[in-house]
TrEMBL record:
Residues 21-363 form the Major facilitator superfamily associated domain. Its main location: membrane. The lineage of its organism: Bacteria, Pseudomonadati, Pseudomonadota, Alphaproteobacteria, Hyphomicrobiales. InterPro entries: HcaT-like, MFS_assoc_dom, MFS_trans_sf. This is MFS transporter. The chain crosses the membrane at residues 21-39, 51-72, 84-101, 107-126, 147-166, 172-193, 214-235, 247-266, 273-292, 298-326, 338-360, 366-384. The keyword Transport applies. It comes from the Bacteria. It comes from Bradyrhizobium quebecense.
């Protein structure tokens, strides 16, 4: 192996340029989510959509994750067009949200939102696949790149909460649209990556992903633990608003969780535990978080509990991405990300619909259901821990 002093200057510059452009795109992509996640349901409520319809409408993104999304990621991988697909879906998403802002009837909103989600939901798995290819190509760490998305989420959520003092709730959709347009423009700066060499073994490995218990354990565990955040994403802002919290307080509560997530992503290169163990710790943290949230704790306790987002979400993401890097060859990474997100979509869509009904009847009792989901996800990872620790890349190679 050549020493660092022998590496050409261009070889040193390329990783930095890749990292900067990817960090900026993660920032705009999750910055939009920082407005959408806390306040899209508030906008729906402000224009007169009831809780049951909110649950149905917000089920659209996870439904597209297991229907349209795998087709998009597979097509992008077959055509070696990860970057092009990211750019195209970015501009299509911006157009979609602009149209959503003009609609106010539940059925029409559901239809337009669902169509928009067909191009919006593939963006993150496409970006993660692009990121993991770059991580391997340039020898980088995923966490420090991904943290910029979390940082932008926090900033945009805070700004949106502050703007609620001056902007009517019915106009929140235009803030979401503006950030989406910015993200589409930033996507143009993403650096092209070299095409991976496709061999017969690699091509054959793609359909075998879903027949391998190792890979299935990864995606099922991720779906259950991350899916346990469903009620939080959909109804937390509404519940906090009903509790009398201001828009800024709601934004701060969201941001506390994201700050913990940022710290965890920044520290992740120093983690020495196996990725499977990290996921099990994350599952246990999620169980504790939702069990406490279900008790309607006072604001001070709720603020502390929100810091658990770093473990319940952030540590799950780091652990799952670590497992993907070590158990899935780069040549089928986009397809694997599509399957991962599709499995999450099946769980999340079901959770969104059921959560709407449970919340309407039991209120915060919906978090008890979330705790049970997280516990199940941790148990799946525990069952697969030995295989995941000792058999790298078995998921695509057949084990």
């Amino acid at each position: 192996m050549s020493s660092e002093s022998q590496i050409p200057i261009a070889a040193k510059v390329a990783p930095r340029r890749f990292a900067r452009s990817l960090a900026a795109f993660y920032a705009t992509t999750f910055g939009m989510t920082g407005v959408h996640l806390p306040f899209f349901t508030v906008w729906l409520k402000a224009i007169g959509i009831d809780a049951a319809w909110i649950g149905i409408i917000t089920a659209a993104p996870p439904v597209t994750r297991f229907t349209v999304l795998p087709l998009v990621t597979a097509a992008a991988e077959r055509r070696q067009m990860l970057r092009g697909a990211i750019i195209a879906t970015g501009f299509a998403t911006a157009l979609g949200f602009a149209v959503i802002g003009t609609q106010h009837q539940p059925l029409v909103l559901l239809a337009v939102y669902a169509l928009t989600c067909c191009v919006w939901t593939p963006m993150v798995p496409l970006t993660d696949a692009y990121a993991l290819r770059g991580v391997r190509q340039f020898g980088l760490s995923y966490g420090p790149l991904r943290l910029w998305g979390s940082a932008a989420f926090a900033v945009c959520a805070l700004i949106s909460g502050f703007l609620l003092r001056y902007v009517a709730e019915v106009d929140l959709i235009w803030i979401i649209t503006a950030v989406t347009v910015l993200g589409a423009l930033v996507g143009l700066t993403l650096r092209p990556l070299g095409r991976p060499v496709a061999t017969v073994a690699h091509v054959a490995g793609a359909p075998r992903l879903l027949r391998n218990p190792t890979f299935l354990a990864i995606i099922v565990s991720s779906a259950l633990i991350q899916g346990s955040h469903g009620a939080y994403y959909i109804f937390a802002s509404i519940a906090w608003q009903q509790a009398g919290f201001s828009g800024l307080t709601i934004a701060v509560l969201w941001v506390l969780g994201v700050i913990a997530e940022i710290v965890l992503f920044a520290a992740s290169p120093r983690f020495t535990l196996p990725s499977a163990v990290l996921v099990m710790i994350a599952a246990a943290s999620a169980v504790a978080r939702w069990a406490i949230t279900a008790q309607d704790p006072p604001l001070a306790v709720l603020a502390v509990v929100q810091l658990g987002h770093g473990l319940s979400f952030g540590l799950t993401q780091v652990g799952i991405m670590g497992l993907m890097v070590h158990h899935v060859p780069v040549h089928v990474m986009a397809r694997a990300q599509g399957y991962l997100t599709a499995c999450g979509g099946i769980v999340a869509s079901t959770t969104a619909i059921v959560s709407g009904m449970v919340y309407a009847r039991f209120g915060l009792g919906v978090y008890d259901m979330m705790a049970a989901m997280a516990a199940t996800g941790g148990f799946v990872m525990w069952l697969a821990r030995k295989r995941l620790t000792h058999h790298p890349q078995s998921a695509a190679s057949g084990g």
